[in-house]
Amino acid sequence: MYKWILFLLLVSTNVNAQTKYYLTADRVFDGEQMRPGWAVVVEGNKIVAAGLGLSVPTGAVKINYPGATIMPGLIEGHSHLFLYPYNITDWNTQVLKETDAYRTIRATVHAKQTLMAGFTTTRDLGTEGAGYADVALKRAIDEGMVPGPRMLVSGRAIVTTGSYGPSGYDYDQQLMLGAETADGYMILKVVRDQIGKGADFIKIYADYHWGPGKEDRPTFTLEELKMANEAATSSGRYFVSHASSKDAIRRAVLAGAETIEHGDHMDAETGRLMKEHGVTYFPTLAASEKVTQYRGWKKGVDPEPKNITEKKQSFKAAMESGVTIGMGGDVGVYPHGENVIEMELMVEYGMKPVDVLKAATSVNAKALHMEQQVGMLKPGMLADIIIVGGDPSIQISVIRQVKFVMKDGVVYRQEK
User: Fold this and answer.
1) Cα–Cα distance between 373 and 376 in angstroms, integer?
2) CATH number, position 346
3) d(CA 254, CA 264)
4) Residue 77, SS3?
5) Would residue 29 count as lying in a domain?
6) Which residue in 68, 122, 190, 351 has the fewest CB atoms around it within 10 Å?
7) Helix (H) or strand (E) holding 137
8) Domain span at residue 286?
């Protein structure tokens, strides 16, 4: 009898025990600036201290990486865990011929690759034909069944009738689309239904390349977008918008969109409008470059295509306008785990490395309404912490040298 009581007490003590960590490296990027010589202390799943001259807590596991940088876990602002590079399998085939079960299995692998690359949070902007499998994947990760980043999901995303793919097939067939259609007042029902099925936010395609010459043209009217925004915000959610053309960006911003994705044709005036309304811009530079490469462009060898030149101009205009720029590359178009490509391109296109680091941490956290949880290394925040070799504020590509990954106080990667 007494042996069983002792055993139960020991088990209870072990379950409730909180592991402590004392993390050091040459420098700490706290989400806003570099802090040479800092240490970070973790207890359980929370950061309890970060700064100079911290003592080592009794019983703490000491981890030190000379020459390295401690950072908040990176945040991917625009991902598609249910897609993979189109030069392997084209988008139409993935949507139309691969089962949801197969795509979900692939997505679990993508989730692990994302986490191991140091991205501990991701905002996933649509399963592209896999229904609400993202809601299930999010739950599986949260319950510890599979390793992956903390997820915010949008479910099916919303488009207007006639403006999305797959397209170009015999009209006698009823094809499954990569998103859910809604028009007029029906958008209220669709938004509410998606929220009821687990969407953390609503993604809407404010334009699409469906113009007479396949150019980007607006889809939803301003009134429709406003209805969607009212339905989303009434539930405590928000809406984000795919928008490449200036007209679509303007409509989405005026309707209440909190983030604009892509913005391929934005100018300084559009950027200033976004800044005025507190909108964050996610440029998805990597997706534009990779899709163009899949179509035959050899970067550094061939002349720069018009769409890449325009993308660089739009990014420059965004920086000059002062609009807040987040880090989100549309990963899935290119390999999961290679999220850093977007950060490298942001620097290549003219952004300072330290600003790119902010975009992938504190800026993204605020855009995702998670600034009280992640994106900074300070007491009370969740223990999402990575360590990378070198100084990414000087050379952004050292983000690829991931030495250590902790999410919610659990260590998932620790290089020797």
Assistant:
1) 8
2) 3.20.20.140
3) 18
4) strand
5) yes
6) 190
7) helix 133-142
8) 74-367
**Tell me: the pLDDT tens digits for 34-68?**
999 999 999 999 999 999 999 999 999 999 999 99
| Euclidean distance between CA atoms 246 and 272, whole angstroms | 12
pLDDT single digits (tens) 144-203: 999 999 999 999 999 999 999 998 898 888 888 999 999 999 999 999 999 999 999 999
Largest separation between any pair of C-alpha atoms in the chain: 82
Looking at the fold, whether 134 and 29 belong to one and the same domain comes out as: no
Give the span between the Cα atoms of 317 and 66, in whole angstroms.
Answer: 39
Q: Is residue 174 part of a domain?
A: yes
64 and 84 in a common domain: no
Parallel, antiparallel or unpaired: strands 180-181 and 202-205:
unpaired
41: Cβ–Cβ under 8 A, 6 or more apart, which residues? Answer: 20, 21, 22, 23, 47, 48, 49, 50, 54, 57, 60
The residue assigned the tokens 């941490």 is 361
Rounded distance between C-alpha atoms, residue 276 and residue 205, angstroms: 22
d(CA 254, CA 258): 10
Per DSSP bridges, beta strands 158-159 and 180-181 are parallel
- Reported pTM: 0.95
CATH number at residue 389: 2.30.40.10
CA end-to-end span of the chain? 45
Q: What DSSP line would sit under 139-207, residue for residue?
A: HHHHTTSS---EEEE-TT-EE-TTSSSS-SS-TTS-PPPSSEE--TTHHHHHHHHHHHTT-SSEEEESE
Residue 319 corresponds to which tokens in the numbers above?
């920086």
